[in-house]
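During the reporting period the student researcher (J.K.) took over the structure-prediction task from the postdoctoral fellow and processed the backlog of single-chain submissions. One of the processed entries is reproduced below for the supervisory committee.
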Amino acid sequence: MATVAADTAPSSHRTPEERAERGRAARSETPRSSHADWSPAKNRPDPIAMLERQAATRVPELLPIRYGRMAASPFAFYRGGAYIMGSDLANTPVSGMRAQLCGDAHLSNFGGFASPERDLIFDLNDFDETLPGPWEWDVKRLAASVAIAGRDRGFSGKQRRSIVQSTVRVYREAMHRLAGMGELAIWYERVDAGMLRDRVGPQATARQLRTFEKTVAKGRRKDSTRAFTKLATTIDAKPRIVADPPLLVPIRDLLPEPEEKEFRGGMESLLEAYRSSLPLHLCHLLDRYEFVDLARKVVGVGSVGTRAWVMLLIGRDTGDPLFLQAKEARPSVLEPFAGKSEFGNQGKRVVQGQRVMQAASDVFLGWLRTTGVDGKRRDFYIRQLWDWKTSADVESMLPSGMDVYGQLCGWTLARAHARSGDAIAIAAYLGNGDSFDRALVEFSERYADVNEEDHRLLLQAIEDGRVEAVAGL
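J.K. obtained the following structure tokens:
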């Protein structure tokens, strides 16, 4: 499939009627029902070979953890298989309209976090693969994740289909609502804890509401102070990150003492490079903190093996910590299929994509390019490690809970796409009927079948010794 042009924004010279006509006209080229028609290509790449290709530039000793986490279930495999699905999506029908994509919009990549105004808001929360591309790709990734998670939970086929259809329906209905709004109104749309309670409440059971309240309360406690009690201690009157190998390894345990001191000495220039990506008023805030320690951290499922660091900084005293996470940013897995990023720095690509799609972003969100302990130059993006971070436990959801949660994710994804794409044209393409919704139900079940086979191939590769896996980490 040829890569698509990078333009995502609606033309300011087109009237709403012309933009709507563009969307309706796209139905002739790409009928909405055509999105149901998918099967793996005859020359489909070996999924394990694709994972091995990604592994070539990752930290070798962490790869068994990645494979172990992906082997846990078909849903866990799916979470780590964004590159595999990107290759599959490249051969699916598209309407020709684009938006800024998350690139990995599955159920577990949504959650709650603090806005700069200290509201708890719900949004997409992972942008490692963000890139402009066909809006359908994100919707299909989300819809298939519902089907796959539903299978893992033992839901019936009828239950899964109903949940997928309602997830996509809410995306379509939200896009229609957004299409009728002004551009500023779209930009200001968000879901905070109060609005989330109003949206979820009418459909939720009393037990689900109690769980929701507990999750919100727990999220508000999850900040740098809480992280200090979990991840750090004081040694010889100095704050230090506590080792928990292989998941958390301080720099002092990774390098010989002379090299560690040299690396620590270079942290000032590293933070200065990061500082240049922040607005000036936040530089003043960052300058009030002093760097004290650094550790390598294993994060996520698909991200395991990429370089992720936790930096501990201290403000007025040890009761005023700041934990920042520096995560390696590599080219998006969608790049071979959707086109090259306009940004030369991959950390900047992640940050700018996140700022476009999220209703509000971490105040410390920034990027840098630096030389690692192995002497190689790499791009990173930086954000707070914990800032009221909450997430839904997809692996324990009942059908009613996943239905409510899927709808919330569908609404959130539509709002994210409307900030960069042409909401009027996309809404007109989707229409008022359920043709697209039903098509994605069929697509999702077909993709879930193939994902199960891919997961089986990983288990076979582990059994054969092709890849090494460590479970339980």
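The committee noted the following: Residues 147 and 445 are 6 Å apart (CA to CA).
J.K. will present the remaining backlog at the next meeting.
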